[in-house]
Amino acid sequence: MCADAGRTLGDADENQAGPQEPATELAVGQDLAITLAQVANPVVPIFYIASRAEGTLRQTEILCNVRQHKVTLESLNNPDGVEVEPIDHELAIVVSQDCDLERDFIRREELRVNGTVPDRTDAHLLPTVLFCEAYRERTLQDMVRGQNDSWQKFHQNKLERYQFLRAVEADGDRLGIGLDAMGIDFKRYFTVPTAELYAQLEGRCTRRCRLAPQYLEHFSLRFSNYLSRVGLPKNHHDL
Fold first, then answer.
1. Residue 140 in 3-state DSSP?
2. First CA to last CA across the chain, in angstroms?
3. Which end of the chain is more exposed for a tag (fewer CB within 10 A), N or C?
4. Least confident stretch, 63-72, 73-82, 101-110, 217-226
5. What are 192-229's pLDDT values in tens digits?
6. Which residue range(s) make up the domain with 16?
7. pTM exceeding the 0.90 threshold for the entire prediction
8. Are 182 and 139 contacting, i.e. CB atoms less than 8 angstroms apart?
9. Looking at the domain assignment, is residue 198 inside a domain?
10. 3-class state of residue 7 by DSSP
């Protein structure tokens, strides 16, 4: 994980109590607070935290109706210009790290206040946001194939390519509706330009929730492990 970025816009991590606070509770949103007793009590685990309506995007934040734009191959070498086709993702989860997202948001706010046009070479800006596409559990079920116990292994997060996420209760969803159980295929990731994504959040795209800290770490580690796997010419157990 990256080191925390400086918080010049009062956007401190709401999962962490300040160094001078008594730390009796950890604020995680406008209408929700996690007490230290709850965090310490494994009988009442907290899986999701409702998103905020505004502010920086967060790692593992789940968004609805993310639109990705893809240049058509037929127009790629067209001297008159390219054609772009939209790809709509019903559900997507942010994979980019919090430190990069926060530095980018702070910098964009500074540029906006100063009326300055962003420079693509600005080291504080994040050009694109990395996502994994998320599927409703029923949809992913047809994608997970194998032995009879494959679906059980999927639910236990023992299939290295997939991540199972339990249903989101209404109180963990910014819209107060909740979300069905989901599955993530680590091989299906994509990016959206950061400025374009924040513009989408003002219209079609909706912020719903994000994973609580321990579950964020679990997801991030499994995703990075999947991308870091090493292809061997022959496995040790092969005859």
1. helix
2. 39
3. C
4. 73-82
5. 999 999 999 999 999 999 999 999 999 999 999 999 99
6. 12-46
7. no
8. no
9. yes
10. coil
